[in-house]
Amino acid sequence: MKEFENTIAPTLSVERPVGMVNTSGLKVQDPSFSSVGEIRRDGVFDQRIPFNGLLTNKLLAALPGPDFARLLPHMEPVSLSASQNLYSFGDSVSFAYFPETVVVTHLYFLEDGSTTAAALIGNEGMIGLSAIFASAPQSYATQITIAGSALRVDIDTLRQEFFRGEALQKVLLRYASLRLAQLSQKAVCNGRHRLDERLCSWLLMVQDRAGQNRLRLTHEQIAHHLGARRAGITDACNALRSKGVINYRRGAIRISNRDLLEQAACECYATLTHLQRHVNVINSLKTREPARTIRTGG
Hints:
CATH topology of the largest domain: Jelly Rolls
Strand order of the largest sheet: 5-2-1-16
CATH superfamily of the largest domain: Jelly Rolls
Order of helices and strands: HEEEEEHHEEEEEHEEHHHEHHEEHHE
CATH class of the largest domain: Mainly Beta
Strand content: 15-25%
Protein backbone atom coordinates (compact mmCIF):
# COMPACT_ATOMS: atom_id res chain seq x y z
CA MET A 1 0.00 0.00 0.00
CA LYS A 2 2.93 2.33 0.56
CA GLU A 3 3.75 2.33 -3.14
CA PHE A 4 0.18 3.28 -4.00
CA GLU A 5 0.12 6.13 -1.48
CA ASN A 6 3.49 7.56 -2.45
CA THR A 7 2.67 7.40 -6.15
CA ILE A 8 -0.66 9.15 -6.25
CA ALA A 9 -1.39 10.99 -3.03
CA PRO A 10 0.26 14.29 -3.99
CA THR A 11 -1.44 14.71 -7.37
CA LEU A 12 -4.62 12.64 -7.57
CA SER A 13 -7.92 14.39 -8.11
CA VAL A 14 -11.37 12.97 -8.64
CA GLU A 15 -13.95 14.83 -10.66
CA ARG A 16 -17.52 13.56 -10.51
CA PRO A 17 -21.08 14.39 -9.50
CA VAL A 18 -20.65 13.57 -5.83
CA GLY A 19 -22.79 10.74 -4.49
CA MET A 20 -24.28 9.79 -7.85
CA VAL A 21 -24.12 6.15 -8.84
CA ASN A 22 -22.38 6.15 -12.21
CA THR A 23 -22.38 2.75 -13.85
CA SER A 24 -20.02 3.92 -16.57
CA GLY A 25 -17.34 4.63 -13.96
CA LEU A 26 -15.93 7.53 -11.99
CA LYS A 27 -12.95 9.23 -13.62
CA VAL A 28 -9.79 9.53 -11.57
CA GLN A 29 -7.62 12.23 -13.12
CA ASP A 30 -3.92 11.39 -12.85
CA PRO A 31 -2.00 10.70 -16.06
CA SER A 32 1.22 10.03 -14.16
CA PHE A 33 -0.21 6.92 -12.49
CA SER A 34 -0.61 4.00 -14.88
CA SER A 35 0.04 0.85 -12.88
CA VAL A 36 1.12 -0.61 -9.59
CA GLY A 37 3.11 -3.76 -9.02
CA GLU A 38 5.13 -5.84 -6.58
CA ILE A 39 2.36 -5.67 -3.99
CA ARG A 40 3.52 -8.45 -1.69
CA ARG A 41 2.32 -7.47 1.77
CA ASP A 42 0.07 -10.52 1.98
CA GLY A 43 2.19 -12.63 -0.36
CA VAL A 44 -0.48 -12.89 -3.04
CA PHE A 45 -0.16 -10.16 -5.64
CA ASP A 46 2.84 -9.44 -7.80
CA GLN A 47 1.40 -8.63 -11.22
CA ARG A 48 1.67 -5.10 -12.60
CA ILE A 49 -1.76 -3.99 -13.72
CA PRO A 50 -3.08 -0.97 -15.58
CA PHE A 51 -5.24 1.49 -13.69
CA ASN A 52 -7.48 3.25 -16.18
CA GLY A 53 -8.81 5.85 -13.75
CA LEU A 54 -12.38 4.54 -13.78
CA LEU A 55 -14.08 3.41 -10.59
CA THR A 56 -17.07 1.17 -11.28
CA ASN A 57 -17.72 -0.26 -7.83
CA LYS A 58 -21.23 0.83 -6.87
CA LEU A 59 -20.56 1.07 -3.14
CA LEU A 60 -17.65 3.45 -3.65
CA ALA A 61 -19.64 5.33 -6.28
CA ALA A 62 -22.40 5.95 -3.74
CA LEU A 63 -20.11 7.77 -1.30
CA PRO A 64 -20.17 11.57 -1.09
CA GLY A 65 -16.95 13.27 -2.10
CA PRO A 66 -15.38 13.88 1.34
CA ASP A 67 -16.07 10.29 2.47
CA PHE A 68 -14.58 8.88 -0.73
CA ALA A 69 -11.56 11.18 -0.45
CA ARG A 70 -10.74 9.89 3.05
CA LEU A 71 -10.56 6.31 1.76
CA LEU A 72 -8.83 6.95 -1.54
CA PRO A 73 -5.22 7.35 -0.28
CA HIS A 74 -5.49 3.97 1.47
CA MET A 75 -6.69 2.01 -1.58
CA GLU A 76 -4.53 -0.05 -3.89
CA PRO A 77 -5.54 -1.64 -7.19
CA VAL A 78 -4.89 -5.38 -7.49
CA SER A 79 -5.25 -7.99 -10.21
CA LEU A 80 -6.93 -11.26 -9.20
CA SER A 81 -6.64 -14.56 -11.07
CA ALA A 82 -9.42 -17.09 -11.63
CA SER A 83 -9.64 -19.87 -9.00
CA GLN A 84 -7.36 -17.91 -6.66
CA ASN A 85 -8.40 -17.99 -3.01
CA LEU A 86 -8.48 -14.58 -1.38
CA TYR A 87 -9.26 -16.22 1.94
CA SER A 88 -9.56 -19.86 2.95
CA PHE A 89 -11.68 -21.55 5.59
CA GLY A 90 -10.85 -20.17 9.03
CA ASP A 91 -8.77 -17.23 7.79
CA SER A 92 -8.97 -13.85 9.43
CA VAL A 93 -9.69 -11.00 7.02
CA SER A 94 -6.91 -8.42 6.77
CA PHE A 95 -8.08 -6.58 3.64
CA ALA A 96 -11.45 -5.58 2.25
CA TYR A 97 -11.85 -5.75 -1.53
CA PHE A 98 -14.11 -3.61 -3.69
CA PRO A 99 -14.47 -5.46 -7.03
CA GLU A 100 -14.18 -3.51 -10.25
CA THR A 101 -14.20 -6.20 -12.95
CA VAL A 102 -13.49 -9.30 -10.85
CA VAL A 103 -16.30 -11.68 -9.80
CA VAL A 104 -15.91 -13.46 -6.45
CA THR A 105 -17.72 -16.37 -4.78
CA HIS A 106 -18.10 -17.56 -1.21
CA LEU A 107 -17.62 -21.30 -1.62
CA TYR A 108 -18.53 -23.89 1.04
CA PHE A 109 -16.72 -27.24 1.22
CA LEU A 110 -18.69 -30.11 2.77
CA GLU A 111 -17.41 -33.23 4.55
CA ASP A 112 -18.27 -35.50 1.60
CA GLY A 113 -15.98 -33.43 -0.64
CA SER A 114 -18.77 -31.60 -2.45
CA THR A 115 -18.97 -27.82 -2.77
CA THR A 116 -21.63 -25.19 -3.22
CA ALA A 117 -21.57 -21.42 -3.51
CA ALA A 118 -23.49 -19.03 -1.28
CA ALA A 119 -22.78 -15.45 -2.36
CA LEU A 120 -21.73 -14.11 -5.76
CA ILE A 121 -20.07 -10.70 -5.55
CA GLY A 122 -19.02 -8.23 -8.21
CA ASN A 123 -18.87 -4.46 -8.55
CA GLU A 124 -22.18 -4.14 -6.70
CA GLY A 125 -20.52 -5.16 -3.44
CA MET A 126 -17.42 -5.87 -1.38
CA ILE A 127 -15.40 -8.67 0.20
CA GLY A 128 -14.73 -8.47 3.94
CA LEU A 129 -18.14 -7.41 5.18
CA SER A 130 -18.07 -9.84 8.11
CA ALA A 131 -14.77 -8.38 9.33
CA ILE A 132 -16.37 -4.95 9.61
CA PHE A 133 -18.61 -6.41 12.31
CA ALA A 134 -15.71 -8.33 13.96
CA SER A 135 -17.34 -11.69 13.18
CA ALA A 136 -15.65 -15.05 13.79
CA PRO A 137 -13.18 -16.33 11.16
CA GLN A 138 -15.05 -17.29 8.01
CA SER A 139 -16.47 -20.77 7.45
CA TYR A 140 -16.07 -20.66 3.68
CA ALA A 141 -13.45 -19.95 1.03
CA THR A 142 -13.50 -16.66 -0.84
CA GLN A 143 -12.56 -17.63 -4.39
CA ILE A 144 -12.18 -15.75 -7.68
CA THR A 145 -14.73 -16.92 -10.26
CA ILE A 146 -13.94 -14.47 -13.09
CA ALA A 147 -10.49 -12.88 -13.17
CA GLY A 148 -10.30 -9.11 -13.01
CA SER A 149 -9.36 -6.09 -10.93
CA ALA A 150 -10.38 -4.74 -7.55
CA LEU A 151 -9.47 -2.02 -5.08
CA ARG A 152 -8.41 -3.17 -1.64
CA VAL A 153 -8.05 -1.39 1.67
CA ASP A 154 -6.75 -2.46 5.07
CA ILE A 155 -9.68 -3.74 7.12
CA ASP A 156 -8.78 -1.63 10.17
CA THR A 157 -8.82 1.52 8.07
CA LEU A 158 -12.21 0.63 6.62
CA ARG A 159 -13.60 -0.30 10.05
CA GLN A 160 -12.47 3.06 11.43
CA GLU A 161 -14.29 4.87 8.61
CA PHE A 162 -17.37 2.69 9.13
CA PHE A 163 -17.63 3.58 12.82
CA ARG A 164 -17.56 7.27 12.06
CA GLY A 165 -21.27 6.64 11.49
CA GLU A 166 -21.41 8.59 8.25
CA ALA A 167 -22.14 7.68 4.63
CA LEU A 168 -19.98 4.54 4.42
CA GLN A 169 -21.82 2.99 7.35
CA LYS A 170 -25.20 3.58 5.74
CA VAL A 171 -24.05 2.25 2.36
CA LEU A 172 -22.55 -0.91 3.86
CA LEU A 173 -25.55 -1.60 6.09
CA ARG A 174 -27.82 -1.43 3.06
CA TYR A 175 -25.45 -3.76 1.24
CA ALA A 176 -25.46 -6.18 4.21
CA SER A 177 -29.25 -6.29 3.98
CA LEU A 178 -28.97 -7.09 0.27
CA ARG A 179 -26.50 -9.90 0.96
CA LEU A 180 -28.85 -11.45 3.52
CA ALA A 181 -31.65 -11.33 0.96
CA GLN A 182 -29.39 -13.00 -1.60
CA LEU A 183 -28.54 -15.81 0.82
CA SER A 184 -32.20 -16.36 1.71
CA GLN A 185 -33.25 -16.40 -1.93
CA LYS A 186 -30.50 -18.88 -2.79
CA ALA A 187 -31.68 -21.24 -0.04
CA VAL A 188 -35.17 -21.20 -1.55
CA CYS A 189 -33.75 -21.57 -5.06
CA ASN A 190 -31.62 -24.60 -4.23
CA GLY A 191 -34.57 -26.36 -2.66
CA ARG A 192 -37.30 -25.57 -5.19
CA HIS A 193 -35.90 -24.94 -8.66
CA ARG A 194 -34.53 -27.25 -11.33
CA LEU A 195 -30.81 -27.32 -12.12
CA ASP A 196 -31.28 -25.89 -15.63
CA GLU A 197 -33.23 -22.92 -14.20
CA ARG A 198 -30.60 -22.30 -11.52
CA LEU A 199 -27.85 -22.49 -14.13
CA CYS A 200 -29.52 -19.79 -16.23
CA SER A 201 -29.98 -17.50 -13.22
CA TRP A 202 -26.37 -18.01 -12.17
CA LEU A 203 -25.00 -17.28 -15.65
CA LEU A 204 -27.03 -14.07 -15.77
CA MET A 205 -25.71 -12.97 -12.38
CA VAL A 206 -22.13 -13.70 -13.41
CA GLN A 207 -22.57 -11.79 -16.67
CA ASP A 208 -24.09 -8.81 -14.85
CA ARG A 209 -21.01 -8.60 -12.65
CA ALA A 210 -18.38 -9.42 -15.28
CA GLY A 211 -19.89 -7.07 -17.89
CA GLN A 212 -19.07 -9.34 -20.82
CA ASN A 213 -20.76 -12.03 -22.91
CA ARG A 214 -17.79 -14.40 -22.95
CA LEU A 215 -17.23 -15.99 -19.55
CA ARG A 216 -14.15 -18.10 -18.87
CA LEU A 217 -15.88 -20.96 -17.07
CA THR A 218 -15.63 -24.73 -17.27
CA HIS A 219 -18.47 -27.16 -16.62
CA GLU A 220 -16.49 -28.43 -13.65
CA GLN A 221 -16.30 -24.93 -12.13
CA ILE A 222 -20.01 -24.36 -12.63
CA ALA A 223 -20.79 -27.71 -11.02
CA HIS A 224 -18.78 -26.72 -7.93
CA HIS A 225 -20.64 -23.42 -7.65
CA LEU A 226 -24.11 -24.90 -8.10
CA GLY A 227 -23.49 -27.99 -5.97
CA ALA A 228 -24.28 -30.29 -8.89
CA ARG A 229 -22.66 -33.10 -10.85
CA ARG A 230 -20.56 -32.13 -13.84
CA ALA A 231 -22.64 -34.40 -16.08
CA GLY A 232 -25.78 -32.52 -15.07
CA ILE A 233 -24.19 -29.18 -15.99
CA THR A 234 -23.04 -30.55 -19.34
CA ASP A 235 -26.57 -31.79 -20.14
CA ALA A 236 -28.06 -28.41 -19.22
CA CYS A 237 -25.46 -26.53 -21.29
CA ASN A 238 -26.06 -28.81 -24.28
CA ALA A 239 -29.80 -28.08 -24.09
CA LEU A 240 -29.17 -24.33 -23.94
CA ARG A 241 -26.75 -24.49 -26.85
CA SER A 242 -29.22 -26.41 -28.99
CA LYS A 243 -31.75 -23.59 -28.46
CA GLY A 244 -29.22 -20.89 -29.40
CA VAL A 245 -29.08 -19.47 -25.88
CA ILE A 246 -25.37 -20.06 -25.26
CA ASN A 247 -22.36 -21.39 -27.08
CA TYR A 248 -19.25 -22.83 -25.56
CA ARG A 249 -15.82 -24.14 -26.22
CA ARG A 250 -13.47 -25.72 -23.77
CA GLY A 251 -12.97 -23.32 -20.90
CA ALA A 252 -15.37 -20.58 -22.01
CA ILE A 253 -19.11 -19.95 -22.36
CA ARG A 254 -20.56 -17.23 -24.58
CA ILE A 255 -24.08 -15.94 -23.98
CA SER A 256 -25.63 -15.74 -27.44
CA ASN A 257 -29.18 -14.65 -26.57
CA ARG A 258 -29.67 -12.98 -23.21
CA ASP A 259 -33.45 -12.59 -23.65
CA LEU A 260 -33.85 -16.34 -24.04
CA LEU A 261 -31.55 -16.92 -21.08
CA GLU A 262 -33.72 -14.69 -18.89
CA GLN A 263 -36.84 -16.54 -20.02
CA ALA A 264 -35.25 -19.85 -19.05
CA ALA A 265 -34.04 -18.63 -15.65
CA CYS A 266 -35.92 -19.19 -12.42
CA GLU A 267 -37.76 -16.33 -10.74
CA CYS A 268 -34.87 -15.77 -8.32
CA TYR A 269 -32.86 -13.81 -10.87
CA ALA A 270 -35.63 -11.23 -11.35
CA THR A 271 -36.19 -11.00 -7.59
CA LEU A 272 -32.52 -10.37 -6.78
CA THR A 273 -32.12 -7.94 -9.68
CA HIS A 274 -35.08 -5.92 -8.42
CA LEU A 275 -33.60 -5.80 -4.91
CA GLN A 276 -30.24 -4.65 -6.28
CA ARG A 277 -31.81 -1.86 -8.32
CA HIS A 278 -33.81 -0.75 -5.28
CA VAL A 279 -30.62 -0.46 -3.20
CA ASN A 280 -28.87 1.42 -6.02
CA VAL A 281 -31.70 3.96 -6.15
CA ILE A 282 -31.66 4.47 -2.38
CA ASN A 283 -27.89 4.95 -2.38
CA SER A 284 -28.09 7.55 -5.14
CA LEU A 285 -30.86 9.48 -3.36
CA LYS A 286 -29.37 9.33 0.13
CA THR A 287 -25.89 10.50 -0.83
CA ARG A 288 -26.64 12.93 -3.64
CA GLU A 289 -24.91 16.31 -3.39
CA PRO A 290 -24.09 19.12 -5.84
CA ALA A 291 -21.28 18.31 -8.27
CA ARG A 292 -17.79 19.20 -7.08
CA THR A 293 -14.14 18.42 -7.66
CA ILE A 294 -12.30 16.44 -5.00
CA ARG A 295 -8.58 16.71 -4.51
CA THR A 296 -6.57 14.55 -2.14
CA GLY A 297 -3.02 15.13 -1.02
CA GLY A 298 -1.03 18.31 -1.52
